[in-house]
Amino acid sequence: MSALAPIFCSTNIGSLSDEMVRIKPKILLLDYDLPKLDGVGGIAALMKLNPDTKVVILSGPITDEIEWGLFRTGVRGCCQRNIESEQLKNVIMAVQRGELWIRRTLSWHLLNELVMITQEKNKLKQTIGDLLANLTRREYEIATLVGDGESNKQIARRLAITERTVKAHLTEVFRKLDVADRLKLALIVKGSMSSRDTTQIEH
């Protein structure tokens, strides 16, 4: 394990919190039963001190629900406290490469999470697409240019119309999309970009 040094050891949550800020370790091997750690919530708070630190939990037997909760918090690996040193080295190297060290029996949780995230993204894209479909072709064109960061003057010049006309169209766009400013409009437009090729505006 010396090749993976330097190593800092802390036996209490106070000094560990201080060192998380001072040293900013790349890897943290954290005992789940560290006094005053306070379970998943305490681990989440500790990780906020340095979000770049990759945390590996060492524990005794814990339930699948607790272990999955740790991964959802952002932990990169979980293993038994009595793990062999050579195997622990494999865990650290895998986590350093950006991998998760997760039991196969928990893989279905990971797959379910990915499916749910994908479904939510698809619903959001559909909702955004439905909103944009309410715009006329000209309104959609102007909204897209706003999403690209162009000013009213630039849009007017590009489309060969007056700034007053641009403002009138934008007022209608804001009303239809129920947004109050250009930033929110830009976020909506950008959110639709990945599905933009399949969005047809016919008016």
Task: Give the helices and strands, then pairings.
Layout lengths: L12 H10 L4 E5 L7 H10 L5 E6 L4 H10 L3 E4 L4 H12 L10 H26 L4 H11 L4 H8 L3 H15 L4 H10 L12
Parallel strand pairs: 1-2, 2-3
Structure description:
The chain has 203 residues and is mostly helical. It is built from 9 helices and 3 strands. A 3-stranded parallel sheet has the order 1-2-3, sandwiched between helices. α2 links the parallel β1 and β2. The N and C termini lie far apart (67 Å). Residues 194-203 have low confidence and may be disordered.
Please outline what is shown here.
This protein is mostly helical.
Properties at a glance:
203 residues; mainly alpha; 3 strands; disordered C terminus
* Strand order within the widest beta sheet: 1-2-3
Helix/strand class = mainly alpha
How far apart lie the N and C ends? 67 Å
Task: Give the H and E element order.
Answer: HEHEHEHHHHHH
Principal-axis shape: elongated
Mean pLDDT comes to 82
Largest sheet: 3 strands, parallel
